[in-house]
Design goal:
single chain, alpha+beta, 6-stranded antiparallel beta sheet, 18 helices, globular
Length: 974
């Protein structure tokens, strides 16, 4: 039995009640494997309907250009509380005027006395309301600021080169390398014999990336390509390693070199470092400046002591409770490749001197192309180590002094010079991001990034997987929750997401009007949106999901080692480097955690007890010696490992002895001449190659964890499997834009399947199911972009089957409600009210012209009789098409039925329905778009809206209102 110790999240008053229960029960010796707190199944179902607030969503709480007030702070936090949020991240930033948008007034600069007063007020108000806060420790991102000096900033190598003839007594000032910011420090001078017969050769491929002068792809896709290069050519090297002369002691003040040059022509290279020219991005007002050196603990600590510590000190009674986390945003600062003591760090970590290989950074080939690329890999790995240990670790250590944890976006999606999983090792919340459909990021590989963060939570034993959620660029107020928010959320839940941070919730003081000031990007979600009154119903869906998803652990069969190359970040789940999809799931692991693995009962096991059936190696055929040795030991201990025989290392550490050891281990595991496909027993374990992990599992009789039977590669579906104590909890998502059905097979038997609806909180048994061969097959039906939890928790004979043939419900239309309708509008918005609708048409097509540009609520009212009503029947109302937001509230005979926001926009009305004289009221809200389009050509003083967002010429009117058909249906009895 595995025992997992999960770090507990504090509430404003301390640890959660559930956390106290876990501690007590653990002390009593009761083992709850992978549970964050004790929970009875009945309580689980009750709380699923109305989850405690601690499971609510959070948000990037944008303090735009610092333009916030105490009144707007209080309003926002009270609205968050009312809508079920669990907290927010204070994020001072600019960006209001990007993409051609207008400016907003400049508020107090981040950290100033005036800003600090606002910050203290926010923490105090959050404490009063029982909300958890995070704080981004600067304005904007790429950590830095106006007082970061050139010495403290991110650095780049720079060099100059001269040719001299010997023998000669050389005593001259070497040319100054190119510098930035009037900053330069010397490192070393090296010299090597100049070759006159150097053949034409291709340059080292992607040298600016390999030498970390720039960051990689903005989506980190195929970072493995950093290990590729052009084919070598004969005699292409500029120098052999032993011919490189280090002249560090010969360099005097001002760059003067004094050296007795040997006979022949010599290339002399002067290496130093200057600033990288990286600057803070998207910050408020005057918070501009250089980016801080991420490889220096000294400079981070100086920044902390100046800017972060003073903020924490003024709210210290509430640090670690109300103010729980610290944040920095995603890496977008480009490359960096030097720091003050980098040469020492390199020697300590890689075991050899860096100076002889510095010419490679300048494009020279030293020894040969493979050697040069191996040095570059060591170079980047050292940068990554320093970033992790001298930035994120120091950040975590300083935060822990206040009882706080971290939630930085420290692992992409921009492929900085780091190992993303290693950076995550210092976080409390594994923070990532995902995008709603957006012109800026339209392809799945550019939108979905949570899988890496979820893997980090698994391998580091953390509870929360957060994400900056619903980011867009180019959309404004025309986002439809059911089609643009729910599908990407569901997809990332299947990757492991369990905590939404809305991007973005912009604070907008009352003086800024409506819809008010807004960031240029992100889905706008704050009290100024037209449909905020009904938004809690949408947020409740996320909250119910998070209530279950923050418990237990994700069940995965396969662990994929993603190598030690830098940059290295994981991709979307569907990228499937482990080759296990569909039907199985995998986690990523990096070298640091790989070295912590053990084998127990044939399973590959992490220190906290999480285990896997199979370890899969990267397809590169490149492994570090440390990783190879660990894999060798795991196999001997009984592990099953899948991967092709590696051909070489990408490192000069310990070379050439390391190559001999490398060959020894590979031959022991794969044999001296491994065939294209095969397997080899070593010790208690087995090495397999030439087949995928999915093929291996299927050949071994291990059925898919989830199989959507009768579909092609599970197209349009995805799943996540969590284990909570003795319960198996499956989240099933249909990504289909139409209603679909599927027979879904689960690798579970002997338990009653239950259907838990996260839209409504309804819990019911699945009455249709079959068991056999260790699986349970459950027929499921899904509405557009539908989802459900399928939970197995109650014991059942493994031979039992359900009494029904389907779990779907069928509705038979009894009557259509055709009106006429009287529709009331907000008359203060220059619209006649009420208006008569003889038929249901879009507001943009109604004869009343003023209605075309209306944005807000319309209340549809009509009366009808229903003489065909019978006892013991269930009746439902379906609204048909609801535009443009797709959200409506229904009341019948003066009683509120509920809010609906997903197709088919259906609610039960059995209790409220009368045979005669029914009054039906349907409240529908559209977005700000039509009013903004109407205001586009008006003078500002005549507009009904006020915002800094530019209303672009291409914006068109959107259909709005209740379009129907509105129908009453009867639930067909089975």
């Amino acid at each position: 039995m595995n025992l997992e110790f999960t770090k507990l999240e504090k509430t404003p008053s301390g640890f959660s009640i559930g956390g106290r229960l876990t501690i007590i029960l653990t002390l009593l010796g009761l083992v709850f494997s992978h549970l964050s707190f004790a929970q009875s199944p009945d309580t689980l179902a009750v709380n699923f309907k109305n989850p405690p607030q601690q499971y609510g969503i959070r948000c990037w709480w944008w303090w735009l250009n610092g333009n916030v007030t105490q009144a707007s702070i209080t309003r926002d936090l009270e609205e968050m509380k009312a809508k079920g949020f669990s907290g927010a991240c204070i994020f001072d930033a600019g960006g209001q005027n990007q993409q051609g948008n207008g400016n907003v007034p400049e508020g107090p600069m981040f950290g100033s006395p005036e800003w600090r007063e606002l910050f203290v007020h926010a923490v105090q108000e959050a404490n009063r309301l029982g909300l958890v806060l995070s704080l981004s420790i600067q304005s904007g991102w790429n950590l830095g600021g106006p007082d970061v000096t050139a010495e403290e900033a991110t650095k780049h190598l720079t060099w100059s080169e001269v040719t001299v003839k010997g023998p000669a007594n050389y005593s001259q000032v070497l040319p100054m390398p190119k510098i930035r910011d009037n900053f330069y420090r010397d490192i070393v001078v090296v010299a090597f014999p100049k070759r006159n017969d150097l053949p034409q050769r291709p340059p080292i491929k992607d040298l600016d990336l390999k030498a970390a002068f720039r960051e990689g792809d903005r989506s980190g896709f195929n970072t493995e390509k950093v290990l590729e290069d052009e084919a070598p050519t004969a005699n292409e090297q500029d120098a052999l390693t032993h011919d490189v002369v280090i002249l560090k002691s010969k360099l005097g003040a001002g760059g003067k070199l004094t050296w007795q040059v040997p006979a022949g022509e010599w290339t002399i290279m002067r290496f130093g470092f200057t600033t990288s020219d990286a600057h803070v991005s998207t910050s408020s007002g005057k918070w501009q400046g250089r980016v801080i050196d991420h490889m220096s603990a000294k400079y981070f600590n100086r920044y902390w002591d100046t800017h972060v510590k003073p903020l924490l000190d003024v709210v210290e009674p509430m640090t670690g409770t109300t103010l729980r986390y610290l944040q920095t945003d995603s890496w977008e600062g480009g490359g960096l490749n030097w720091t003050d003591n980098f040469a020492t760090e390199f020697n300590k970590r890689r075991g050899y001197d860096i100076y002889s290989y510095l010419p490679v950074i300048a494009g020279k080939i030293i020894q040969d192309r493979q050697t040069s690329n191996a040095f570059l890999a060591d170079f980047r790995k050292t940068i990554s180590d320093c970033i992790a240990e001298y930035h994120y670790k120091v950040f975590a250590d300083r935060a822990s002094e206040y009882g706080m944890g971290l939630q930085p976006e420290s692992a992409g999606p921009h492929a900085g010079p780091f190992d993303g999983l290693k950076n995550y090792g210092y976080s409390e919340i594994m923070m990532s991001e995902f995008w709603s459909p957006s012109p800026h990021r339209s392809k799945p590989e550019d939108r979905f990034f949570v899988k890496q963060a979820a893997s980090a939570a698994q391998i580091y034993n953390k509870q929360l997987v957060g994400a900056e959620s619903f980011t867009t660029i180019g959309r404004h107020w025309n986002d439809v929750p059911w089609s643009m928010m729910k599908p990407p959320f569901d997809r990332e839940v299947c990757s492991g997401l369990n905590l939404v941070f809305l991007h973005t919730f912009t604070n907008s003081p009352k003086e800024m009007g409506r819809p008010g000031q807004e960031y240029f990007a992100g889905t706008h979600l704050n009290p100024n949106i037209t449909w905020w009154e009904f938004a809690g119903t949408v947020f409740d869906y996320f909250k119910r999901c998070q209530y279950l998803l923050q418990k237990g652990y994700v069940a995965t069969d396969v662990l994929y080692y993603y190598g030690d190359h830098v940059p290295n970040i994981g991709h979307l789940k569907a990228f499937d480097p482990a080759k296990v999809l569909p039907g199985y799931d995998y986690d990523l692991i990096n070298e640091d955690r790989l070295l912590k693995l053990t084998v127990k009962d044939g399973l590959i096991t992490l220190p906290h007890g999480k285990n896997y059936k199979v370890l899969v190696l990267p397809s590169l055929k490149i492994l570090s010696l440390a990783a190879l040795k660990k894999i060798h030991d795991l196999v001997l201990e009984g592990a099953t490992v899948i991967g092709d025989k590696p051909t070489h290392m990408m490192s000069l550490s310990g070379y050439p002895e390391s190559q001999t050891t490398f060959n020894k281990y590979t031959n022991e595991l794969w044999g001296e001449s491994a065939s294209a496909e095969g397997q080899r027993q070593s010790g208690k374990g087995i090495m397999i190659w030439g087949q995928t992990a999915r093929e291996f599992l299927q050949k071994g009789g291990i059925a898919p964890d989830v199989e959507f039977m009768g579909t092609k590669d599970d197209e349009g579906y995805d799943y996540l499997h969590r284990v909570i104590g003795n319960m198996d909890v499956y989240f099933i998502s249909s990504q289909n834009e139409k209603q679909v059905t599927a027979n879904v097979a689960f690798r579970v038997s002997g338990k009653q399947p239950e259907l838990w609806n996260p839209l409504t909180g309804e819990v019911r048994n699945a009455n249709a199911f079959q068991q056999g061969n260790g699986r349970t097959i459950v027929p499921l039906s899904f509405d557009q972009y539908g989802s459900t939890f399928v939970i197995f928790r109650k014991p059942l004979p493994s031979t039992a089957s359900g009494s029904a043939t389907t779990n779907s419900v069928k509705y038979n239309v009894v009557t259509a409600i055709k009106g006429p309708w009287k529709v009331s509008f907000d008359s203060t918005l220059n619209v006649a009210s009420p208006l008569n609708f003889t038929t249901l048409v879009s507001w943009t097509k109604h004869p009343e012209k003023s209605l075309q540009h209306y944005s807000g609520k319309g209340v549809y009212s009509t009366t009808f009789d229903f003489p065909v009503m019978k006892k013991n029947e269930r009746y439902f109302i379906t609204l048909g098409s609801v535009q443009d937001v797709g959200i409506a509230k229904v009341s019948l005979n003066g009683k509120e039925i509920g809010v609906t926001w997903t197709p088919p926009f259906q609610l039960e009305i059995t209790k409220e329905l009368l045979r005669k004289g029914n009054r039906l009221d349907v409240e529908v809200i559209n977005s700000w778009r039509n009013r903004l389009v109407g205001d586009r050509g008006l003078p500002k003083e005549n507009r009904l809206t006020k915002t800094n967002i530019t209303i672009k010429p291409e914006w068109q009117l959107l259909e709005a209102g209740l379009l129907g058909p509105v129908e009453i249906s009867i639930l067909e009895k089975k």
